[in-house]
Amino acid sequence: MSEVGYSYLDELNDIQRQAASCIDGPVMVIAGPGSGKTRVLTYRIAHLINKGVIPGNILALTFTNKAARDMKDRIERVVGSKAQRVWAGTFHSLFARILRVEAHRIGYPNDFTIYDTDDTKSVISEIITQMNLDKKVYAPGVVRSRISAAKSNLITPKAYIINDELMAYDKMARRPLIHLIYEKYAARCLRAGAMDFDDLLLQMFRLLYQNPDQVREKYQRQLQYLIVDDFQDTNYLQYEILKLLTIYSGSRNNICIVGDDAQSIYSFRGATIENILQFEHDFPELQTFKLEQNYRSTQFIVEAANEVIHHNKRQIQKKIWTDRIEGNKIKIIKAATETEEGKRVADTIIEQKNRFNLQNKDIAILYRTNGQSRVFEEQLRRYNIQYRVYGGLSFYSRKEVKDLIAYMRLTINDKDDEALKRVINYPRRGIGESTIDNIAQLADDNDLSMWEVLTKIEFNNRSRKSIGDFVTLIRAFKAKAVKSNAYEIADYIARNSGIIELLKSDKSIEGLGRMENIISLLDGIKEFVEDDEIQLNEEMDKDKSLSTFLQTISLMTDADQKEENPDTVTLMSAHSAKGLEFKSVFVVGLEENLFPSYMALSEGNQIDEERRLFYVAITRAEELLTLTYANSRYQYGSMRYNDPSRFLEEITDKNLDSIISIHKKEGFPEPKILGNFRPLGSKKPMISVNPGDFVAADPKQIKPGMEVIHLKFGQGKVISVDERMVASIVFDGLDENQDKRIMLQFAKLQIVE
DNA sequence: GGGGGCTATGGGGGG
DNA sequence: CATAGCCCCC
What we know:
This protein is of the alpha/beta class. A hairpin with a 3-residue loop joins β16 and β17. α4 crosses α10.
């Protein structure tokens, strides 16, 4: 027996331990799904700290803020509270925090506003109008994504014009003036003291690039150990920033990237796997580790995932394997319509909860588009199953919440024209559209913000008094902001802007809901002010300003919101599910034109990415995986009939439950045997029941002592029936000591004569 | 300046 | 199906 005590490194397998303890020089970790990536990251950072590295010198970039928080908490369990001093967060949130200290160096106010996608589109839309361009040709959304793509590739407006490829593409798409819109948009944002999401990266780059002495060197010294999770989803610009922080004279190149090319699913926002190849080129002395053992999922799931991803050509060679050979095969459910799909998923959830003793939180429904959540919500409500929908319209994107926030934004940064336009006539104070247009035009002509126009120019039209009142109001808010904390200001604004008064007068159910949202926004700000959790480093710990609050919520996603009810079924997009795991996963809507999305099918080479997304979705499952599709569904007002997804065909029968084959040409025969899940751990074969011969009995006839047949469990004996119509039944194929509690109102049972 | 009703059109993923 | 944008009327 060794005298050396237990070490946290003992909890890792060989390759994990090597990856975690190789802390000098560049490291690349290729981590398959469920391969203990988070564990490696956690122990790597803990190891660094135990070796004497100061926590504040470690920068860990994660994909979500929640992932960062979870990671810090795990590290804390190993090294104690100093773990909280590690710089951990998303690229966007950490850079936003740095820019809040440094932005003045590159011409922005430190209290800059963050423009969300709506703000951006609205600015672009206004520019397009002013340029007299056709909004059908120059659709603001399309223009925005071109600009976003340019920024993600570090292409400035000047560089855009001389980029033949971009210009040729725009010309071909009959949008040759995008570069001009881009230029004007950038100028507008600067004038408004606003950064969009891409700017948080781009301006961070500029800051470091243009200030080598004062700033870059400071952060190079500060952030000596870089760890980048989900590196496959970083874009060119993000990588260039990482290089500015890492590559310099005397650097030890302590950068560790962790990723999986097979899980790259964000190319639509500029992510490129080229970064992995480039990394090998930029750091030739790097050490590579491949984590190939999957600890998450059973063999059927791992094998199916391998089968699917094998259809992609370009990938880093690896073989994901598991030793969890027990388990249930993958179940495919076919439904006639989207409603039936919802019903059958809800039924299966009830069944799984009963049979496998699952809680709601063990279960997730994953879909390709957020719009698919509705039918599942309806069916889960019918059964009174608690659920939570992630994504879609988040709290902070509700109109009334945005309205109040716009007042706060304007109070903090009066150059924020988008906020000003939102509130100048809300609640109505008689400043109409033409007046607002006039103000916007004056602002543009004189290169002023709209607020400057309001305060510096004498208005002689009939809006004059209204404008004066509005200016007085905002000035009062600004005065209040000087001497109060975030909650006091917000409360003051809510009361004095007229928003609360307006909402109170609306007695409809929706109106009450809106009022509740305003109250919970204020509660949220109060909580923010009173929260004593340590954040990042001391310099920023005590910053409870309204400005910090606004920044925090701009970068917050649904997943970052605290859970009110911890035991809920999770409904989310396959994208949002990245990094998560559940005992039972339903991947729904597996149809051509939906998953894979028709956008991917029509625009050519995006099938591989859809397949990676499907790969991500199915590898979230630990034990039970159910794939569903509907023959028809309502899409955009009309009934659509889609073929089953090609991805279903890529899983071979040996990993599929029952004998379902999908023959596209011949239609889709009913499966011969409906699901025959085995309970986890059971080795007994199930009795299968042919649904064709099955006749369900009236639930009221089911009495104790009867022999019954259940479509999924096979034959069994009814032990008891209670007043809620819940029957206790012992099934022949299952563990005889373990009765199943079947809800008769849902289950269909045939009585054996 | 404000509100209501009609028509055309979009159509994904998210920080 | 949703909703943005438009026109028309008060």
